[in-house]
Write a structure and sequence with these properties.
17% strand; globular; 181 residues
Length: 181
């Protein structure tokens, strides 16, 4: 059985470094773990006026979130916090009231940024939001990748990302129990 991980990339840019990081993670995923992007590009800005007639792009987004066994949020850091499009997606996923697509989901956070701390501050903010939404967020390893050219081909980075994916797989997959005789 394959564990389906929905990846939500906080950047809308087609060639963002976080999108490239997500591509590398998909390449490194162990057998039985599939990473698939859940796009946030077409989501309108959240406004409760739309709750009565949820737009088709939002319905598709929420169904993809619900169909995922777990979620991977790949966030850039904009102005020391999460980017607006990612926050907008989180808001839509929790609406309309009583239809929270996030509740009970297991998730992990990762990101890469140009500073030496990667996306540590954005990830800390995101962790608080996800907890409030009822998600169980993987605590370790916290993975903030400082971006530089060639980072994704570096053997040490590859090993670190592989360990992150193994931890994500354990976090999301139910434990295997062996019955007594």
């Amino acid at each position: 059985m394959t564990t389906q991980i929905g990846c939500i990339i906080g950047s809308l840019a087609r060639d963002s470094i976080n999108r490239r990081l997500t591509g590398k993670l998909a390449e490194l995923a162990p057998p039985g773990l599939a990473l698939t992007e859940i796009s946030i590009r077409d989501l309108p800005l959240y406004c409760y006026d739309l709750d009565a007639d949820v737009p088709p792009a939002v319905r598709l987004f929420k169904s993809e979130v619900s169909a995922s066994d777990g979620l991977l949020l790949v966030t850039p850091e904009y102005n020391r916090s999460v980017p607006g499009p990612l926050k907008n997606a989180l808001d839509w996923g929790s609406r309309p009231w009583g239809d929270n697509s996030w509740h009970g989901k297991k998730a992990a956070i990762i990101g890469t940024g140009l500073g030496s701390a990667g996306t540590a501050v954005a990830q800390a903010h995101l962790r608080g939001i996800l907890g409030y939404l009822g998600m169980t967020v993987m605590g370790a390893p916290e993975t903030c990748v400082p971006w530089r050219d060639g980072i994704l081909s570096d053997p040490a980075t590859r090993d670190y990302l592989t360990a992150f994916l193994d931890a994500l797989n354990r976090h999301v997959s139910p434990p295997v129990t062996v019955g007594r005789r």
